[in-house]
Write a structure and sequence with these properties.
The chain is built from 13 helices and 18 strands. The chain has 392 residues and is of the alpha/beta class. β15, α11 (321-326) and β16 form a beta-alpha-beta unit. α5 packs across α6 (198-209) and α5 (172-182) packs across α12. It starts with a strand and ends with a strand.
């Protein structure tokens, strides 16, 4: 089959690789009908996430048709179309029992989990196409993919619904939803969201549905700010204003009730702290550029909440821990418990209460994935979201 593979920093290629096979009784093989490039894929493209190996198959946002199931799977049928969560979860461990699926204890194989335990204190859950720290599983930017624990993750979608309406249930819609949920939004709250990429846009949509009175979106790309505005947000261009001062002015000196960092470990801009972070990242003296996280902590009102859906992968410094403590802030973060949210969010899509397609800028065949990665990385204003079609 054809699949997009990683070969180092800014080097991805579409190669011919072996077809996936059933390995365990609960496996399924999915013929990919649509897959997408995620902003967090760019962390792999930039080679800032450790644990990648030459030839790894990328991609964690995908859906498709079930073409084969293991003998232990009684929940799926061949021929049905499913959306697959990017998180791999067993469904029966302590954490899955609490619906903390992204903390699953069993989905990261024993021969892989030691590395993440060293880095994070405990083994990470398995993720598709996202380094050997998270299991080394082949991703879904391919013609076919093996799905472990397929009786727990994939959700069957109704016949006749267009792929693009449900594709983002695999990651960015649940991630934006959980970001807003972690912000503990109360009716009428002012919510500030850093980053108007796909996750930030879904956080805006979700915050609106959860009753936020006012949403303020922060970015500098005109097209992304336009999308945020179209979804009901007021916008700030951080090239034109001092963000914290602007937020104070807009909230009568109180500050936002909740702040959401939808940027993560590769914050941009020329603030002194970010320049230092960038130098440390390039020289391997640090891993994460956390300017946005610092700014959310400083900007949030006293007693407010900070939600962090943006990916952080390693070590950072210069966090304003004093402000965090003295202001009494609550922080919630984590990889998304996708399986927990799928039924509810599929219903929102089917009821027409949310548009999941307005952020798509490009639709391309899988063979053009290397070009798509380069443009998504280099031209984020025009390339807001890319959907790839492996089978035309």
């Amino acid at each position: 089959m054809r699949a997009l593979t990683w070969h180092g920093k800014h080097n991805v290629q579409v190669d011919t690789v072996p077809d996936p096979q059933i390995v365990n009784p609960r496996d399924a093989i999915i013929k990919i009908t649509a897959t997408a490039i995620c902003g967090s894929d760019l962390h792999l493209y930039d080679s800032v996430i450790p644990g990648m190996s030459n030839g790894d198959i990328l991609g964690h946002e995908f859906m498709g048709e079930v073409v084969e199931i293991g003998r232990g799977n009684t929940s799926l049928q061949v021929g049905r179309k499913v959306v697959v969560p990017f998180v791999i979860a067993c469904g029966s461990c302590f954490h899955c029992g609490k619906q903390q699926f992204s903390a699953c204890d069993n989905s990261n194989p024993a021969d892989k989990s030691d590395a993440s335990e060293i880095v994070y204190g405990y083994p990470a859950a398995g993720l598709f196409g996202y380094s050997h720290l998270t299991g080394g599983y082949a991703g879904g930017q391919a013609e076919y993919v093996r799905v472990p624990y397929s009786d727990v993750g994939p959700i069957v979608v109704p016949d006749g619904i267009e792929d693009e309406r449900v594709l983002f249930l695999s990651d960015i819609f649940p991630t934006g939803w959980m970001a807003a949920e972690n912000a503990e939004i109360e009716p009428g709250d002012t919510v500030a969201i850093w980053g108007c990429g796909p996750v930030g846009l879904f956080a805006i949509k979700s915050a609106r549905l959860m009753g936020a009175g006012r949403i303020i979106a922060i970015d500098h790309h005109p097209r992304r700010l336009e999308l945020a505005k179209a979804n009901g947000a007021e916008v700030l261009n951080y090239h034109e204003v001092k963000v914290r001062e602007a937020l104070m002015e807009m909230t009568a000196g109180i500050g936002p009730d909740a702040c959401i960092d939808a940027v993560g470990m590769e914050a941009h801009g020329f603030s002194p702290d970010n320049i230092i972070d960038a130098v440390k990242q390039e020289t391997k003296l640090g891993t994460d550029r956390q300017h946005v996280l610092r700014e959310t902590i400083m900007a949030c009102r006293k007693g407010g909440r900070v939600s962090i859906p943006g990916v952080y992968g390693g070590i950072g410094d210069k966090l304003p821990i004093g402000a965090l403590m003295q202001k009494g802030l609550t922080i919630k973060t984590g990889q998304t418990h996708v399986q927990k949210y799928l039924p509810q969010l599929l219903e929102l899509v089917m009821d027409g209460k949310i548009d999941t397609t307005d952020l798509i800028s490009h639709r391309l065949p899988l063979e053009q994935a290397p070009e798509a990665y380069k443009n998504f990385h280099d031209n984020p204003n025009e390339w807001t979201k890319v959907v790839l079609k492996p089978h035309g």
